[in-house]
Specification:
Elements: H1 2-41, H2 56-111, H3 118-149, E1 159-162, H4 163-180, E2 185-188, E3 195-198, H5 200-217, E4 224-231, E5 234-242, H6 255-266, E6 270-275, E7 279-287
Parallel strand pairs: 2-4
Antiparallel strand pairs: 1-3, 4-5, 5-7, 6-7
Helix pairs in contact: 2-3, 3-6, 4-5, 5-6
Length: 289
Amino acid sequence: LLVNVAAAAVAGVVVAIVLILLIRRKTAYIAQLERELKILEGGDLHYQITVRGSDELASLAQGIDDMRRSIIEREQGEAAARAANHALVTAMSHDLRSPLTALIGYLDLICGGKCDSPEQEKHFIEVGRRKAYQIKALSDKLFEYFLVYDTTSRTVGLEEVDGRELLSQVVEEGLFDLESGGFQIVREGVCPACRLRVNIGLFRRLFTNLFTNVEKYADHRAAVSVGYAQEGGGLVVSLCNRVAKDSRRVESTEIGLKTCEKIMEDHGGRFEAVRTQDGFCARMWFPVD
C-alpha cells in the first residue's frame, strides 16, 4: 500500500513538474509574443514574429505575421501608386500646358481679328484643331492611368455577345487601318464560333491600344500577324509584329499595355506581352461560353 501511495505521489509530482514546465514555456512564449507585438506597434513592421510549435498560440502568431506581411505589401503598393501618380501629374501638367497655351494663343489671334489674311486664319484654325486633338489624346492617357491604378473595387458591366462577330468587326477595323497605313497583314486561322461576356467599350479600347502600339513601334517592312486559337477552354487572340529599330530608343511608360492587362483582368481573362530581341507579341485569353 505504501508503495502504491509513494508511486502515486511521485507520479503526481512528475505530472505537476511537467505541467509547470509546459505552463512556464507557454507563459514565456506569450511574453515573447507580447514583446514582439510592442516592436510592431513601434512601427518596425519588418520584425518577423516568432512562430513556435503547432498549437493555437502558434496559429495566432502565424496569423499576426501574415497580417504584418500583408500590411507591408499594401504600404509598398500604395507607395508605388503615389510615386506613379506624382510622376503622371508632373508629366501630364507639362504635356498639357504646351498645346493648351498654343491653342489659347491661336484662338486669341483669331478672335482678336489679328489674322493678315483668310489663308492665315485658316492656318491658325487648323493648327488649333491639331492642338485640341493632342490635348484629347493626353486626356485619354489620363483615363487609362486611372483605369490601371484605381485600387477601389468596381463592377464592370458585361454583356453576352457573339464572339466571332464582335472580334471580326473590331479586329478587322484595326487591321484595315493598318493596311491603309502600309502594313502587310497575315491572318492565321479563323475565329471559331463562341459566346463572350464583354464590356464593349473596354473591349474596343483594348484593341485600340494594341493597334496604336503597332502603328508607333512596328517595322513597316515586316508583316503583322493576327491569329486565333482555342486553348484551355477559352479563346486566344494574338497580335504579333517586328519592332522597328528606331522605336527601341523611344521611352514608354507602357501604360497602354498595363491598361490591356487590367481590361483582360476585368473580363476574367489573361493578357501576356511577349518580347524578343526584334519582335513583340500580345496574347489575350478570353473565357468563352
